[in-house]
Design goal:
The protein has 268 residues and is of the alpha/beta class. The chain has 8 helices and 13 strands. The protein has helices at 20-27, 41-45, 91-102, 121-130, 143-152, 154-159, 202-212, 228-241, and strands spanning 11-13, 16-18, 38-40, 61-66, 73-78, 111-115, 133-138, 163-164, 168-169, 187-193, 213-224, 243-248, 259-265. It is globular and about 45 Å long.
Length: 268
């Protein structure tokens, strides 16, 4: 069986012991079957010699490491590019999770909701490294992928004392009354990684955050800087809905693209 706390150099993938040599032999193999193509994200972080939104989409799974040099926890996230943009891992999910973990923005047991989770990377990382109690949500077509990734990392989640509820569908809405009663005001922290763009309804996103946060709860919205006007619009509406809406230009080991972090607090 997989070890309770897998590391990148001692990790089982579909019954195979994954070593650095195994990963490197498979990452560029055109003939490797899809279920054997694994990529170690830190090997790209080490040089970051190129950038492309879909640069890692050909890999079945990506291994991410969190927690720093003293205690590194590896999690494995599978992708499905047939699902479109939401079926692959975006840098924003890693950057947000890494920031929240290294800055200790949560504590064990913190109730976390991830909106637009896609593959579930950010939420699973907070459960597997920070011991949080996490709920993953997105549109219905992404739920099976999130469930698959939860199952892949269940041992790490349990080892950290975390918990991830069965992923579920949640459509954003400006009508906060459509949020089911058990989700309203239920979460200490709400996450949204790379969910602000011209193809998404940022107003519905903000209202969904407002509806699901507890009074005093915090939300972290990581935005990749594509069109500055999008961020200005989000900040204007966030300031009207929440108290203390601030934007932070966070530093990350991922230097390939520019991301800003919008932080808000629900007062009432």
């Amino acid at each position: 069986p997989p070890p309770a706390s897998p590391l990148a150099n001692n990790l089982f993938f579909q019954g195979t012991l994954v070593t650095q040599e195994y990963i490197m032999s498979n990452e560029n193999s055109i003939n490797a079957p899809d279920n054997a193509r694994i990529f170690l994200y830190s090997s790209w972080l080490a040089h970051q010699s190129y950038y492309d939104d879909y640069r890692h989409s050909r890999f079945h799974s990506i291994i991410y490491e969190f927690g720093g040099s003293s205690h590194t926890q590896g999690i494995t996230i599978a992708q499905n590019k047939c699902l479109g943009k939401g079926g692959i891992v975006w840098d924003g999910a890693y950057i947000l999770a890494d920031h929240l973990i290294t800055q200790k923005c949560t504590t064990p047991g913190t109730k976390v909701l991830e909106l637009g989770a896609g593959t579930g990377l950010a939420g699973i990382a907070l459960a597997a490294v920070g011991g949080c109690s996490v709920t993953l949500t997105d549109r219905a077509e992404f739920v099976p992928l999130m469930i698959d990734n939860l199952e892949r990392n269940q041992d790490a989640v349990k080892h950290a004392g975390g918990k991830v509820e069965t992923p579920r569908t949640l459509e954003w809405s400006t009508d906060e009354d459509v949020i089911t009663p058990n989700m309203r005001g239920a979460f200490d922290v709400v996450l949204a990684a790379d969910c602000v763009a011209d193809i998404y309804d940022s107003s519905a996103l903000l209202h969904t955050i407002h509806a699901t946060l507890k009074p005093g709860g915090r939300a972290y919205i990581l935005i990749r800087v594509r069109i500055p006007e999008h961020i200005e619009g989000v900040m204007e509406e966030a300031s009207a809905l929440f108290a203390g809406a601030v934007v932070e230009d966070i530093k990350s080991v991922n230097r390939s693209s520019h991301h800003l972090l919008v932080k808000v607090v629900r007062i009432t």
